[in-house]
Amino acid sequence: MNSVDLQVIAADHPRLPLNSNSRQFLMLRINKKIQPMLTDAEVERRKPVWTALSEFWLDTELDDNDLRRIARAAAASGYSVSELRDIYLYEIAPIVGPNLLPFGIQGEWVGFDEQWLHTIARLRAERRARRRGRRFGFLLRMMLKTMTYATEDNWHRMVALLPTVDAHESENT
Length: 173
Fold this sequence. Notes:
Elements: H1 3-11, H2 20-34, H3 40-54, H4 64-77, H5 81-96, H6 114-130, H7 138-148, H8 152-161
Helix pairs in contact: 3-4, 3-5, 3-6, 4-8, 5-6, 5-7
């Protein structure tokens, strides 16, 4: 965006003087408004992945059939392992990670409410999209180890299964 574009935008805001500080503020406001958010199609593509990956944080032991089912959902999404890793770390772990923390709170073992999970995961994904290219919050980086300490083994086992699962295979087989 150049100076002319800023002048046009400033015309809509006559009380906003165009000095260097206001230009920076204006650019931040414009960038936040034009950042691409997740489309409905992208959200629908992510929902099964969010739900499947959240199972890593249930207070239950996952067996090979569970991991194959999670791997099928991940494979069906078409995301690369790197993209799945980002979803796992930055969209799901911060939401459901506290379920396995040893604070004496009884963890969820049946499953997380999907509407709640999908709503919060979408907000986190959109926030990440706006922050693309910037470093993630210090607190989040520090907490990732804590939030994934009990799930990393299952993550690696699931990733190892990805090449062996048929994404369109029935869950009953």
